[in-house]
Amino acid sequence: MKILRVSDAISIKRSVDSGTEEQRIAVKKIIEEVRVRGDEAVREFTDKFDRVNLASFLVSEEEIKEAYELVDSYSISVIQEAAANIHSFHEKQLRPTWITTEENGTMLGQKITPLDSVGVYVPGGLAAYPSSVLMNVLPAKVAGVERIVMVSPPSDNGKLPPAVLVAAKEAGVKEIYKVGGAQAIAALAYGTETISNVDKIVGPGNIYVALAKREVFGDVDIDMIAGPSEIAILADETARPHEVAADLLSQAEHDERACSVLVTTSEKLANEVAEEVLKQLEELPRKDIASKSIEDYGAIYIANDMEEAISTINQLAPEHLEIITVNPIELIGKIKHAGAIFLGRFSPEPVGDYFAGPNHVLPTNGTARFSSPLNVEDFQKKSSIILYSEQALNENAEKIAAFARLEGLEAHARSVEARFKK
């Protein structure tokens, strides 16, 4: 793992994978086919890409019951406790509708309304992601969304992973479809005979899913186009090398383009972590992926002091930030840009990924400079409320009309003045 001085140019940014021209054309064709032919097109693409011919896309109650029989009781209890933690955390994000009044009769406010419907995409393939179900569904439930639809690509047996179905049931999802890829995004955006369209689509996926979300944005809302995972660790001489190395590798195993960075004031720690990373890599099941990630996007930066180290972290604006220092809490106020902040050696990143409660859908690729984690407000919309009394309008009519004429909009001015013409 390369060791550099902070004075060297650094960046956590990677080029955003916008797909090839061939992939973009293919996605557009899939979306158009689904818009025109509905279920028939979805079935054909599912057969082609997932090699499964389904009589019905909808997951049955029998399949959910079977899932509970296939998942051990301890794992079910862990999913249930994680769901409770996530639900509780997001409940604290709720904001009420508010209204203020003034003596002249003016009434102003903001009405908070949940979206009517949301589609949640859960990746499939060789892995199962029950955590993705909980993190995307539960904020929508807390927000008050009435209809939540989940889609996920089927395995070669025509079913979804049992743990995913258990998580969906525990989160309260009532519509689950065995559909993945760009065809699933198109179905959610425009509807088919079986799958009614939704107002917003959230959840991660492969490049075809990402391209499809970009393509349908505007007809529906989307959450974000997330990049590969990343972690930055801010550490001093008190950090333990084997723990820091393990945390760096926890993100490197995600993806060959994942980014793992250590920023430290200790040259001794830097060298020991570099050695420990190589040692632990040899024992990882996903060694090939993690090794490529560390080689291409991993780095250790040595800062002259903590102020320089913190400045470096703020430049990186990482998705995940661990602070492992003698007193991490005192540094929180100096951190300006990070998706999620983990404090101390007993708060490793997987605590947030799975269990603590804060959302693990986070801004990547430096976008923590202006973006936030997925939250309850992502599933709500706001309407402004304006009520002026006759007195209030009379007091301000001349000013409003003047402002309208300042912009050359005479009809706007006359709209106000019409209220006072005899």
Q: Tell the overall outline.
A: globular
Cα end-to-end separation: 81 Å
Residue-averaged pLDDT: 95
* CATH architecture descriptor of the largest domain: 3-Layer(aba) Sandwich
| CATH superfamily (homologous) name of the largest domain | Nitrogenase molybdenum iron protein domain
Binding site for substrate: 229, 251, 254, 320, 353, 407, 412
Catalytic activity: L-histidinol + 2 NAD(+) + H2O = L-histidine + 2 NADH + 3 H(+)
GO molecular function: histidinol dehydrogenase activity
InterPro entries: Ald_DH/histidinol_DH, Histidinol_DH_CS, Histidinol_DH_monofunct, Hstdl_DH
Describe this structure in words.
This protein folds into 3 domains: 3-15 and 227-356, Nitrogenase molybdenum iron protein domain (Rossmann fold); 21-222, Rossmann fold; 388-420, no CATH class. Helix content is 43%, strand content 16%. It has helices at residues 21-37, 39-50, 61-70, 73-91, 130-143, 162-171, 181-190, 207-216, 241-252, 267-281, 287-297, 306-316, 349-354, 390-406, 410-417; strands at 3-5, 98-101, 107-114, 117-121, 147-151, 175-177, 200-202, 221-222, 230-235, 259-264, 299-302, 320-324, 340-343, 380-387. It is α/β, with parallel strands linked by helices. Catalyzes the sequential NAD-dependent oxidations of L-histidinol to L-histidinaldehyde and then to L-histidine. Substrate binds at residues 229, 251, 254, 320, 353, 407, 412. It catalyses: L-histidinol + 2 NAD(+) + H2O = L-histidine + 2 NADH + 3 H(+). Its cofactor is Zn(2+).
Features:
422 residues; alpha/beta; Rossmann fold; 3 domains; five-stranded parallel sheet; 16% strand; globular
